[in-house]
Structure formats: C-alpha cells, structure tokens
Specification:
single chain, mainly beta, 6-stranded mixed beta sheet, 5-stranded mixed beta sheet, disordered N terminus
Amino acid sequence: MCRKQVSEGKSMRSPHLSRMFSSGRRRRGARVLAFGSALVVALTAIGLNTPAATAATFSVSMQNLQYNPATLNVNVGDTVKWTNNETNGVVHSVTGGPLSSDVNPGESYSFTFTSTGTVNYHCRFHPDMLGSIVVGGTAPTTTTGPTTTTTAPTTTTVPPTTTSTTSSNTPAPTTTTGSGGAPIGGGPLPVSFHLTDNQGSWYDTNLNLFGTKSLAVAELPRVKTGGLIPGVPLNGLPLLGNGALLGSDASNALNGDLSRLTQLPLNGTLLQGLGVDVEKLLGLDKLRTAIGKVMPPLDLRAIKANTLITQLSQQMAARPANTKTALTDLPVGVELMKVLADIQKYVQTATISLPVTVNFDISSPNAQSAHTITNLIWPEGAQGFPFDQPGAFVGSTTAQLTEPGLYAFVCKIHPYMLGAVVVDDPLTPGLDFGKKLKINSRALNVPSDADIISQLVLKFFNITAPNNWQKFSNTEQKTWNPTFPPAPILMYDSNGSPQLVPLLDAYFKNKFGLPKTLPALNQRPGTPGVGEVWIDTELEKTAGKTKSGTATKVDVSTWKVDRKVALPEVNMNNPHNMWTDKDERYIYQTEWFGNKLDVFERATGRFVRQIEVGPDPSHVMTRTDTDQLHVAINGGASVVELSPGATKIDRRIPVQGPGEKVAHPHAHWMTGDGTTMVTPNVNTYDSTVVDIATGNIRKEATGELPIATGITPDGAKAYEANFMGGTVSCISLKADACKDGGATVHNKQIDLWRNYDPVAGEHGSFGGLPIQLPVSPDGNALLVANTLTSNITVIDPKTDEIVKWLPCDSGCHGINYGAKKGGGYYAYVSSKFANTLAVVDIDPNGDGSPSDAAVVGKMVLDATSATASDDQVVDHMGMGGMGVLAVPLVYNGWAQRVPSNPVNDQLTCRQRYPLTYATDC
C-alpha cells in the first residue's frame, strides 16, 4: 500500500503544552451531499456556500512506556499529535511507516494522514511500545502480527541514538555519545559499561579485572580550588588520582598483579608470611601519595600521618591474612583514622570533589533487545540514587557517583546481569566499600561489613567470572576454588568503626569455607522417570552462533544426555524456557535476550519456524482448552497469545491498565482449566490475575521483584517468588485459601529469611534470590529454587509453611515436575552456574507430606560422543540451566490430554488424573 505524506508538524517546544488531549473526534462541520447540480447552483445563487469538511486532530499521550490510546481510527486529512508526558526524563520515538521522530519530554510530534490504510508504529527506545493508526477504516480485530519465517532471518538493527532515562526521583542525566562518552563532571575517563548478550560479560567494561569484565574501580577525583577553568579539559587539571582506573591503571592502583596470592594456602597465614610488601599490599603507599598531593609541604598533619602509616604497616604485618582487623583495636589505627579525618576536613576546604561518571550503553549488535539499569547496592548519601529506569529500554544513559563506596547495578529483566563499581577515597587505607550501604531489598541500610553485603559480593564474583562457575564430573571429584580480588577492602561495622580486610580473596575463603570438593555425580535415582526432560543450558557457546544457548534433552529412563539443540540457522539467542503442544510434536522455545519464539521438532530437533513476539520473551505455556501458546513479554507490557504451532499472533493481553506503569511480566502460570493466568511483574512489584477468555485483569500485592509463579492444581491459590524480597507470596485466586497458622487468609508472605539476620548472618537455613517455584501436580509440594543461597526451600501447600531445606548448586534456578515410573513425581532442578541436573523425590514414602523430600540423583549436562547435536559446543559445556520441561506434561489439565504412546502409557491412572483419581481410577 502506498502512503503519501502531505504535511508533517515540527516538534513543539512550548512549556505550556496541554497535558493530554481527548482521544475523541472534534466536532466536524456538516458533510453536505450534492443532490444535483440544480441544487448546488441554487444554493450558490442565494449566497449559501457548502461548509468544507473540517479535519480533526487526535492526541496520543506517551507516558509510562505506553501510547494511550494505542489504536486510533482517523480519516484522511486528520492529524495525530503525540505528546511525551513522561516526568522522569525519558525520550520516546514515533517510528513506523511514514512516521519518524524522537520526542523529548514535554514535546510533541504531529503528522497528517493523506491516504487510507493501517500504519503500525513503535518506540525505537522501548521495543514493546506499540501503536496503530487506522486511516479511513475500522480497527482490525487483532493487531497485525509479525512475519513468520521458516528459514534463518537476516535481521539487522540500526543502533539508536543516545537517549537519557532516569527514575522519577532523580534528575535527568546528561546525554552522552559514543563508546565511553566524554568527561561529565568526573575524571578524565568515565567508567563505561556496555550491556551485552555475551555470557559472563553482561555488563562489559572491556577489561578483565580479577576474572570478571563487569567490575570497575575508580578514585573519587578532587580538583584544587581555582583549578576549574572554563574551556580547559578535565584531563589537564591537577587531579588527585586518575578519576577513572581502567586497564593498567586499575592494576597499578592495586599494586600490580597479585593474582598469585589467590592460590596460596592462606588459612592462618600472617601478612608478613606472604612474601610481599605489606605497605603496598594494603595500598598504604597510595595513601601516602594522596596525602602528599593535597597537603602543604611540611604540614604537621601530613608528617604525623606518614609516621602512623609506617606503624600501621608494621602492626598489620603480624595480623592474619584471612580475617578483617578492627582498626580501633590497634592503638595506631585509632590515631591514624583521627589524623586522616582532620586531613579530609582540610581537603574539603581546599579542593572540589568531582563525581565519578558511569556510562551505560544498550545497543545492537551486542545487545539484541532491551534491558534496565537498576541499583542493587549504593552508598548511603549518594546523590541521585537509587538509580533506575521506568522500564526496559534501548539506548544510553549516565550516572554520577558522588560518594565513595560500592555501587552495584542489575537488569530487572535478566537479574543475573550485574555490574559493579568500587569508588575509592584515596585518603583512606584500602579500597572503600563505604560506611553504610543501601540495598534494593527490604529497604535495607546496613554497615558495609554486614553479612548480606558479603553474600552479594561473593555471588557477584561467582556469577560474572566464568572461571568461578562450578564444573562437576560424573566420574571424578573436582575441587571448586573460586577466586576473588586479592585486594585490601575498608569496611565499617554497626558502630561506624573501620574494619580493614587485607585480602578479600582470603577473607571470603575463610568466611564461606572455600575451596570445596565437588563430588563425582555417580548417583542415579533407584527408580527411573517416565519420558524425557529438557533443560535450557543457556550459557553454552556453540561454534555456529554468535549468541549463546542450547536446549538439552535427557532421557530419564536411562539418565543419558540424548540431544542438544542450538538452532544455528537462526542464531538462537539465550534460550530460556520451553513448553510442548498437546501432541508432543513441537518444543516451543523463547529467546530471552532477543524478541523471538522458536519452534523445533521434539523428536529430531529440526527447526520449524520462528516468530517475532516482542522484547525479551521469557516463559511460554499452552492453554489446556485451545492449545494456543501464551508467551510472557518480559521486556514489555503483555502476554502474547499465539495460535497452535505458533504460526501467528492471535492477540496481546496487557497485564496492566492503560496509563499504568509497564509491568514486565516474567514466569507466568495458568490454571489447568484454561481460565486463569497469573503473571509476576518485575517492574511494578505486583502480580496480575488474568481472566483468559476476556482479558480482564486484577492486581495483587507481592513482595519485591516477583519473578515466577506457581499455581495449585485445583486453581485455588498462586505463589510468587519475590526475587529481591526473599519471600514467597501466597495469593488466593477464588475464595480465601492461603493458610496462616489456624486462619485462612487472602494473602500471605512466607519469609525465607526467618533464620537470617542481614547484618550478623544466618542462624539456620535461609533462602535468598528465589526464582522458580512450581507446585507439584498432586498439590503436595512447593519447591523454591534460591540463587543466592544455592538451596531449595520445601513448602507444604496444605499449611503454607516451610518444612525442609535441600542442597542445590551455584545459581540454583529452574524446577519442573515429571512422572516417576510406577507413581509419584520427580522434581528436576537446574542451576545457572553449574553444569548439573538434580533429581528430587518430593515424597519418597508416599505419605503425601513433602517433609521427607530428598535429592535422589544428580548428573552433569555435558554432551557425550553419543549426544546428537546440530552444532558443536565450544565453551561452558552444560552450563546455564534455566528453563526445565518434562515430557509428558503431568500437571492437572495437561496430564489428561497427553497422547497415548509407549512412553506415555507408562503413566499410572493417578498420574493422568492427579486430582480426580478417586473417581476416575
């Protein structure tokens, strides 16, 4: 269809723009029809002119990452005006067909339509912002779906120009351009993170520092008063420190390559026994240099500080290498910190402290879809924090780090994407973690030596340094010896007293009991399973793709890795979650870091088709009544419903109301009767209950960053794993059904931290960063995978109480149930940062209680010479276990519909009818 542009309005910059116009049509003049030339002549003769048709102007508001209204019907000659009503600095665009404009906050863009047709458009910064203008016709019954392909697509994406986004309570950041940007109120070189799809370098500094590419170290730069001269670049100023410590500068700041210290037996070793210069090891030489730069020559405070530094070095030499030292326990420590405080007060009057600049870039081809940049940890008092976006976006943004300490960032869509910056005050010993740190969990504000900080920092290095991932073997035991920076860290306790950790590596190994022996995984369940289980080994790299990930099939009758499916013909990007159709012909596979759903044959692994569904599709399920697919658009605002076989999009089901903040649903679940769907919304910290037939929704409260859903087989209640909150929410779907002691309530929070003090540490088993939590098909068990604590919480759904804890591996993530031969169920458990599949028998003695649940087998997910594959695994073999799918499906509603065949006929009558077996069997 040819569309011709007649006129295009320019962006309006008036501050007095109307907030929002009505979406209805303005009154038009009467449309006069000519009944004949005589009537026209007569009207003209008596001086009555026919009124001309008046073109209408329609308004679309862009707010909360949505177009409102998303669909408009207009006539030829009408004008549509888009206004960016965001209040937090977010830039949008109107892009598609003849429409092309970026629209800054408070500005507008207008376009007049001159021909009939339908124009579908989107925001190039927020890929799930979709709109449609129907010109001269009526609205279609469904949104036009993207093209379905049966061969490898050749898609190219033009990188967007830079935009700026911040949370509503922070000022809009300065726009930056290019890799690394320009200096903005900080040191000569900003710290720069490029968010990527590449495993182990999701927040990529292009620098490998202590085994991770996601860490940067920066000094808080100071400029002497009067040194700021207009027009003079910052790199010409007399800065204290470089302002940004990248590459060799970072190594020099930490006194060169100390990596050999991570391999020494440090238990009980004193610093003087390490064979290194203790003063340099603790960074005290850098402290001397910093004092010399800011203090006048022969200043008595500087002279005294240098004397005390020598004494501190001597006293610390006799301290253990693997424990922290309270500086207040050392007489010289008390005196030195007092002198340094005096120097810092003087420096505040003699210099100007500049913030450290951090740039973030999300652009193709490194990042194929949208992400968020969200604070996980930041120092108390940091200006402009917490830092967050209103939702997932594509583009660039900048943060200013104004306080020394630890800053950690995460993507809410992909919450193991982590980046961190340690901003050091050079006028203190060691690298600064800050005095008090805030955490995006339970509104925590804790001293920097709190146990929860150590737990999160430990997990940061276990996640972002691939050499720290757990590599098991089926035949032999292995030693797991993760390494951490052999760097001195300055922490503070609850009383504000400084605690110096000489070597973070030695301290963590002592605190967390490392290294550990990984046993040979030669235990298999005594009873085989029925069918097969598929695991998304999302971190595996293969030879024929630039993007990571495979789907791994295990035959649970033999416990052999049968097949790996990489789909190199479509460069399958981070496969995350799977489901199958009612005939068990297809595997439906989401590409979590892209925007596609893939379909391949279950029996052969042959690629069938690919369809674009929206940014960051996370989880997929089928409806039991229609066999349609529901795909959660994690980077967007909806769940997409597709036809059986995923040949086309039938509808998009929004999971928030018009104008509400975009939800970003993750791991949804559906009831067995196909009537209700529940989504966890990572961006709005709530849950949406959807009536599937009508699309009507209601919201339910959850904890912080709900990420996965489980539903009881009778559809009475749902559970949400609150990733940041360390809780599980029970939500009644009909009548009140959640158990709270002797009461039955609508909503209940199950606390996974009941045995945990975030400052002092654990006093029993606890769960952190919970993810998948399916309810067993018989309703007798709820298992919760905990990423932070590498364990499994066992909850009894009959009481909604924790009854047991089971061990898991690094990055414990995926759980789903399959049939155990002869009756009962196995839970199959995968881990992101270990190459393992664990098998849990949820009720070994068959008494209906999960209190005796046990891990009854474990195996590696590595390919063998007998494993069929469409591409060669070249790195991270068996790693990245996320989505888990057992075939046949044994959940209520699906189990009754599985086809009859030699495998499925092994199911017992009770497994086919998990709720109605008393009458149906």
